[in-house]
Each structure stands twice: as C-alpha cells, then as structure tokens.
Amino acid sequence: MAQKLPPLRFVRSVLKSFMAESGLEPRLLGPHLRVTNAVAGKVDFELDITKDHTNRLKIIHGGTIASMVDLGGSLAVASMGLYATGVSTDLNVTYLSTGGKVGDKISATAVCDKMGKTLAYTSVTFRNAKGELAARGSHTKYVTLAWKAQETPFTPPEGAEIEEDK
To answer: Is the four-CA dihedral 93, 94, 95, 100 of positive or negative sign?
Structure first.
C-alpha cells in the first residue's frame, strides 16, 4: 500500500505527475514553476518568467497567468488530499497590474475555498516582483470521480512517482 504523505510532498508529487503526463504544463511552465509551500487547502507557488511566458509587450502573457489559475486550482484541490484533481467547469481571471517581465518572478497563492462531493471552488492570487497584486482568478472543478478514485487522502496511487523528501 502506498504511503500517506504530508501536504507539501503530496502536492509536489501531483505537480510532478502534471509535468510528466500533461501536454501543456511541461511545455509552458516546465522547470520554471515550483511549489514553495503547501498545507491543507492552500498552496504557494512561483514562476521564473522567461520569454516563452511573455506577450509582444515583453510582459507575462495573460494566457500564462490563466494557465497558472488552472494549474493552481488543481494544486489547491490536491492540497485537500486528492491525487486526481477533477476537471474544470469554470475558470475566470482578472488582470490588475503587470505581472512582470523576463527575469522577474511572479508568486501565487492558490486556496481551496470550498470542497464538496461534486464541486471544488478555488481562488488564486498573483503578486509581481514588487509585491503588487497582479491578477486574481477563480477555478471551479468537478471532483466526483476524483473522490471515487481516492481511497485514502494524501496517498498517491500505486506506481505514482513520489517527490523526494526535501
């Protein structure tokens, strides 16, 4: 039987699965995104902005931030103990100020605001290198099948690649 992991290690293992199995996240975000902290219901992560993340104005592209709302919402669900994080039903982003340019770091906090048997509601806030609120997003996920797939919270499925304990 797989071992139960603390939230930070569990969420990092879920991120590792996204990077190994998904088409978008490894290509868009790759090694530039990292989870810096995770507790039940809350995940902090950051992205080192490269040219691949920017628009023609040479600032972080809104699509990059929208993709991080999607991934952040999934990681917030994972922080509640689900390895399978459901599917999106709604995603919204509001852009408030520039998120940064190449060489900057954008920081984010994803929160699972409410977890039900059917839907999970998450929110993600982004701060630029100056500490200013750059964007905020919300992400609703259908989690019924994720709950059915999870026998014990914070326990990865057999064969899952586990993030090394750091």
So the answer is: negative
* Distance in angstroms (rounded) separating the CA atoms of residues 18 and 141: 16
Nearest to 11 by CA among 111, 87, 83, 115: 83
DSSP string covering 55-82: -TTSBB-HHHHHHHHHHHHHHHHHTTT-
DSSP assigned state of 2: P
Contact of 60 with 71, CB cutoff 8 Å = no
Q: Is residue 1 pLDDT above 60, yes or no? A: no
Q: Convert the pLDDT of each residue in 89-131 to its tens digit.
A: 999 999 999 999 999 999 999 999 999 999 999 999 999 999 9
List CB contacts of 100: < 8 A, sequence separation 6 or more. 49, 59, 60, 106, 128, 129, 134
Query: Does residue 10 register a pLDDT over 80?
Result: yes
Q: pLDDT for 114-123, tens place per residue?
A: 999 999 999 9
